[in-house]
Specification:
The complex is a heterodimer of chains A (230) and B (508).
Chain A (H helix, E strand, L loop, with lengths): L5 E5 L3 H13 L3 E5 L2 H10 L4 E5 L7 H11 L4 E5 L4 H9 L4 E4 L4 H13 L5 H5 L1 E4 L2 E4 L4 E4 L2 E3 L3 H11 L5 E3 H9 L7 H15 L9 E4 L3 E4 L3
Parallel strand pairs in A: 1-2, 1-3, 3-4, 4-5
Antiparallel strand pairs in A: 6-7, 7-8, 8-9, 10-12, 11-12
Helix pairs in contact in A: 2-3, 7-9
Chain B lengths: L1 H26 L7 H18 L2 H19 L11 H50 L3 H15 L4 E7 L4 E7 L7 H11 L5 E2 L4 E2 L3 E4 L5 E9 L2 E9 L5 H62 L6 H33 L6 E3 L1 H11 L1 H4 L3 E6 L3 E5 L1 H17 L6 E9 L2 E7 L7 H4 L22 H11 L3 E6 L5 E8 L2 E3 L9
Parallel strand pairs in B: 9-11
Antiparallel strand pairs in B: 1-2, 1-7, 3-4, 5-6, 6-7, 8-10, 10-15, 11-12, 12-14, 13-14
Helix pairs in contact in B: 1-2, 1-3, 2-3, 2-4, 3-4, 4-5, 4-7, 5-7, 7-8, 8-13, 9-11, 11-13
Classes of the chains: A alpha/beta (230), B alpha+beta (508).
Chain lengths: 230, 508
């Protein structure tokens, strides 16, 4: 880290700000906090941070709207904080451009891990997009469409490879079912989650040593999937 | 009865007078008229009588006219003998034509009268059905049906009887109550079961029963049926109770009973739905209200033991955690109070001083009142018999509400006094007051006035819980604006009071 990463924290609950701000500062981040959605949008405009952490339930402009508006002009990673328990909210936030979510109540370690992950993969390196990716004993060669586990080559169908490389190109990021369906099958398939379920099952059978406890492609229950970060 | 007999007598008199007048006219005629002309003019009178009056009046007139025709106009005149056999034929023909034609016209008239009666009946039944369909209130449907039916059909007695688990439900209309007793009703209903057949002549289905009461009133009892299943009884008494009409009336009443039942079911389904909606709203609200303090506490407490966080910053963390613990505690109280209201509370009354109740309430929400000055004015000389926990719990929500809706540093005045009604406690704040639009819904769950804080605990539930807690003691709460100050909430708990004992317990 050549310079302090700068985080903009948006939550209308003062106790949260008062507890989370010192936590992030102690880890070497520069933290600014605002309590309104409108304030957040102004700050984003005036001095874009490296990471935006935003609560979904703001009194004025809600978190969904902030995700949408920020995404229109910026690729800054967004973590949403949600006190809502419904998965629908998380999916909506992710579909609107959020990179990750943390559900209240959360512990400090959980938040710090998400913050680290989000900052690490930003900005996306071009090598990651085209070269080779290695996760423990799994090697993905994007150029040659080859996948190796250890020394052994795994034979994937074109669709399976497409799915694996789409997930692997966004390591650590939660990809919603909808996003994946759209990327692999096209916009008409967004309401056909069974396509993804079937393909994921066959992909996992091939790449995972224990498909019941996957190591590379992790399930985010009711939301989507995430490729293992490191 | 007597009026129709009188009318018949008048008809008879007029008809015979007309015949007599015709006789006199023809007798004094300057030229002797043709017997055919005379017979035809008599026939005319008879036909008029037949269309206006009863058949027997027409027949008597016909016989009288025949006699007069014979006596005055058939030779030899002045006697009842008839010389020419041709005239016998003419006389007989006249009599037969007179009787047959009056019979026909009388039958036509009866049919017309019947048609009018049916039309009236259909109109009344239609009106009644409309009354039923327009009723949306299930509780009032059957009493109003009984009243309307009695009025529209001019019945002295009209009663609907519905069997209930225990005994009978009665709805009476009309000026005289039915004298049927429960034992009789059971018997009538038992007889109403079984096969039913339509009686075309009386236009009725079976099961009609007549009952002569001790007071000489004859009541017609008709079963109310849905399909063939009897669901109740209808009893009617009064002039002109036609079995067919009663049957139709019973049919309409049966529909009304079914409809009332249906409305009742729909209402309870609606209530159930509202309850479920409220429950899920409460759950969502509490879930949100719990998550925020829990998160703050979890992070703040972790910060306290985090070696990477500086000493100065750690101190602030303890305060955050403590504040949020208070918030959770208050929320916990909310949940308990709501559960209590839901489960139904039995108040436990004891003798207490009003001031103690107020102090207890202030202590419950001390955290929320920290930024305000609370001035208490309580009657120190009298004790009141109330449930102190319930009352102070309810008052605490009112105090908290006052603090949330008035500026920090302002004064909240609490006054407690006793009168013959019971214990009054008023809470007056220096906030902006109440929007008149809010007044109606102020005590509804989840209703939040304009400009209220989002962070209030148990958002929008406090006052509805207050109302619930007070209701358990038979008490109530109301709100008003008290310019130049803000809003004034007053609670009233009906209770007995007495002079405080010299050394009141619980006060040191």
């Amino acid at each position: 880290m050549n310079r302090q990463s700068r985080i903009l924290l948006v939550d209308d609950e003062l106790p949260i700000l008062r507890a989370v701000t010192p936590l992030l500062r102690s880890r070497g981040y520069e933290v600014r906090s605002v309590v309104t959605g409108a304030g957040a949008l102004t700050e984003m405009e005036a001095d874009p941070p490296d990471l935006l952490i935003v609560d979904l339930g703001l009194p004025d402009v809600d978190g969904f709207e902030i995700c949408r508006r920020v995404r229109e002009r910026s690729a800054v990673p967004i973590i949403v904080l949600s006190a809502r328990h419904s998965e629908k909210d998380k999916v909506q936030a992710l579909d609107l451009g959020a990179d990750d979510y943390v559900t209240k109540p959360f512990g400090p370690d959980e938040l710090l891990a998400r913050v680290r992950a989000c900052l690490r993969r930003s900005p996306l390196s071009p090598e990651e997009q085209t070269g080779t990716l290695v996760r423990s004993d799994l090697t993905i060669d994007f150029e040659r469409h080859r996948v190796l586990r250890g020394e052994e080559e795994i034979r994937l169908t074109p669709k399976e490879f497409e799915l694996l490389s789409f997930l692997a190109r966004h390591p650590g990021k939660v990809l919603t079912h909808r996003t994946i369906l759209k990327a692999i099958w096209g916009p008409h398939a967004v309401n056909e989650p069974q396509y993804l379920r079937v393909l994921m099952a066959s992909l996992r059978r091939k790449i995972e040593t224990d498909p019941a406890h996957p190591k590379y492609v992790l399930t985010e229950p009711w939301v989507g999937y995430r490729f293992r970060e490191c | 009865m007597s009026s129709s007999r009188l009318r018949d007598a008048v008809h008879l008199l007029l008809a015979n007078a007309a015949i007599a007048a015709l006789v006199a006219l023809y007798r004094s005629w300057f030229l002797s008229p043709n017997p055919a002309t005379i017979a035809l003019s008599f026939l005319l009178v008879i036909l008029v009588v037949a269309t206006r009056g009863r058949l027997w009046v027409a027949v008597v007139t016909a016989v009288f006219a025949t006699a007069a025709f014979n006596f005055f106009f058939l030779p030899p005149t002045g006697t009842f003998t008839v010389a020419d056999p041709h005239n016998w034929v003419a006389l007989l023909a006249f009599l037969i034509v007179a009787i047959v034609s009056s019979n026909l016209s009388s039958a036509a008239r009866a049919r017309a009268r019947e048609a009018i009666a049916r039309r009236d009946e259909v109109t009344r039944l239609f009106d009644l059905s409309r009354d039923i369909l327009l009723t949306t209130e299930s509780a009032s449907a059957l009493p109003s049906l009984a009243r309307h039916a009695a009025r529209r059909f001019e019945l002295d007695t009209l009663a609907l009887f519905l069997p209930r688990e225990k005994g009978w439900e009665r709805h009476e209309g009309g000026i005289r109550a039915s004298s049927l007793e429960e034992g009789e009703l059971d018997r009538f209903l038992a007889k109403a079961g079984g096969a039913i057949e339509f009686d075309a002549l009386r236009r009725t289905y079976g099961g009609h029963q007549t009952r002569l009461g001790g007071d000489g009133v004859v009541e017609q009892v008709v079963p109310l049926r849905i399909g063939t299943r009897p669901i109740g009884l209808l009893s009617a008494a009064g002039p002109g109770v036609d079995p067919g009409t009663l049957d139709a009336l019973a049919g309409v009443a049966a529909i009304a009973v079914e409809r009332a039942h249906f409305l009742e079911e729909r209402k309870s389904a609606e209530l159930e739905r509202q309850r479920a909606e409220l429950a899920s709203a409460v759950l969502a609200s509490f879930s949100h209200d719990l998550r925020t303090p829990l998160t703050a506490i979890q992070v703040a407490v972790a910060n306290l033991v985090d070696p990477e966080i500086g000493r100065a910053e750690r101190e602030g963390q303890a305060e955050v955690a403590l504040r949020e613990v208070h918030r959770l505690r208050r929320l916990f109280q909310f949940i308990l109070d709501m559960a209590q209201v839901d489960a139904g509370i039995t108040p436990e009354r004891e003798w207490v001083l009003p001031g103690d109740v107020v102090d207890a309430a202030v202590a419950l929400v001390a955290q929320g009142l920290a930024a305000h000055r609370v001035e208490i004015d309580a009657d120190p000389d009298r004790e009141v018999e109330i449930d102190p926990r319930l009352t102070s719990g309810a008052l605490a929500h009112v105090l908290e509400n006052a603090a949330q809706h008035s500026p920090e540093g302002s004064v909240i005045r609490v006054r407690a006094w006793l009168d013959e009604e019971g214990l009054h406690v008023s809470v007056l704040d220096q906030g902006p007051g109440l929007d008149p639009a809010d007044l109606e819904r102020l005590f509804d769950p989840f209703y939040r006035g304009v400009g209220s804080s989002r962070h209030a605990t148990g958002v929008g539930l406090g006052l509805s819980i207050t109302r619930g807690l007070l209701a358990a003691e038979g008490g109530r709460i109301w709100a008003e604006n008290a310019p130049p100050d803000g809003a004034r909430f007053t609670i009233l708990v009906p209770a007995r009071s007495r002079a405080a004992s010299l050394a009141p317990e619980g006060r040191t």
